[in-house]
Write a structure and sequence with these properties.
The protein is built from five helices and five strands, in the order ααααβββαββ. The chain is α+β, with helices and mostly antiparallel strands. The protein has a domain of about 80 residues: Beta Barrel (OB fold (Dihydrolipoamide Acetyltransferase, E2P)). It has a five-stranded antiparallel sheet, with no helix packed on it. β1 and β2 form a beta hairpin. The longest helix is centred in the N-terminal third of the chain and has 14 residues. The radius of gyration is 33 Å and the shape is rod-shaped.
Length: about 140
């Protein structure tokens, strides 16, 4: 090795030491203390790492029973659905809307397009199945 190598390394070390601002040692010690104070159990880490539940996901887990009155807009026996334009559903905090409901073949056969109906249904999120349907007066 050439004798100029050692002075170059020493110069680099001195420059690195000089580039630190005063007080960094205290900040580093504070960060280490904060990190140790923030230690948490593995279960909490796992819970934080799991993706947050979105509103539709949270709604999808709860089955609710409700009732409404509306007008049959269409009937699709092949798909097993009845589309109903219904009024507000207070039990679910739904506004008036038109939506498709899953229905059994005998329920589909019992209604006609343009007929006003009163119905009970089970809702899981925005997925709803008719439990009972009858003509409304």
């Amino acid at each position: 090795m050439k004798p100029t190598f050692i002075p170059c390394v020493l110069a680099a070390l001195l420059l690195a030491a000089c580039s630190q601002t005063p007080g960094n040692e205290a900040a580093a010690a504070k960060d280490a203390t904060t990190a140790s104070e923030m230690a948490m159990p593995a279960a909490e880490h796992a819970a934080m790492a799991a993706p947050p539940k979105t509103a539709p996901d949270a709604m999808a887990q709860t089955v609710k029973v409700a009732s409404a009155t509306g007008m049959v807009e269409s009937v699709d026996a092949a798909a097993g659905k009845i589309v109903i334009a219904h009024g507000p559903v207070d039990a679910l905090q739904w506004p008036a809307m038109t939506m498709g409901f899953k229905a059994a073949p005998e329920q589909i056969a019992a209604v006609k397009v343009g007929q006003k109906v009163r119905f009970e249904f089970q809702a899981q999120g925005m997925d709803a199945t008719i439990a009972k349907i009858e003509p409304a007066e």
